[in-house]
Design a protein that fits this description.
The protein is mostly helical and 296 residues long. It has 14 helices and no strands. Helix 3 runs antiparallel to helix 9, helix 6 packs across helix 8 and helix 6 runs antiparallel to helix 12. Helix content is 76%, strand content 0%.
Length: 296
Amino acid sequence: MKTHPYHFTICFILLITAGSWGLFWIPQREFEANGLTGGWGTIAQMYVPLLMLAPISIWRKIKGKSFGLDYPLIGLLMGGGIACYANSFLLTDVVRTLILFYMTPVWATLYELLFVKQKPQWHRALTIILALSGVWIVFSQGFTFPVPQNVGDWVALVGGMLFAGGVVRTEIVQPKDIFSLLISFFFYGGLVTLIIAYFLGDTLGPMPTNDAWIAMLPWLVLMSAVFLIPTNIVLLWSPSAVGSGLYSIIILIEIVVGSASAAVLTDESFGWREIVGSLLIISAGLAEIILAPKSK
């Protein structure tokens, strides 16, 4: 694909946005600690933004446009991937969620090869080696590979596979209606959260009380307005502008922010492994941005 005229600007905004998602585990666990158990915090973070955007959908329909449910496959893949990602924080360690979900560069490159018929170039091989080397150093223990060991690990891994599929699908479809992309993400992703809650209800916990809903609703609305809606606009649209491979490399910055914040706010360590691995991950993102072929 041709390089977007605002390639570097988009990459920078995506980098900042993805970095902010490295702190997503904090409100996710806070919602659970304050009564939104059973994965209902994740469900609410899909449907509260959807309800907030509903008036615009109705207005669009009055004007002869669609409600916005035009991208079901992208919504199911990307929304479902984030649903798995969010719930995995409740079922396993922060660092295990990050490492297993952010195998996305590998999945995205594989999907590009299979479905886009785009052969990886030498610079992509370099960036994947750098990124995965950083991931390995940060999260492996000794020389062992961090394979899934519990339900939360598997949910995170499947989430990464789904999300990468959605990223590649976005690159293929090149959606122009960003609002429909956003509505599809929250609506279809919300369906996946309900399915997860149904099958993993015993593991995730009981239904929240009415008092918990009342107490947390203002925070859910605030989070939707200032974080979930604006950041998802960037995350959902960017693959069509920068390509799924580059996108999957840049969002690895979330690992750096997530591991560092977990080290500061939890009892998880942040030593030489995390420092060296983080530098490799950042180098991978910079290399991909700089070495990506430019359009003539």
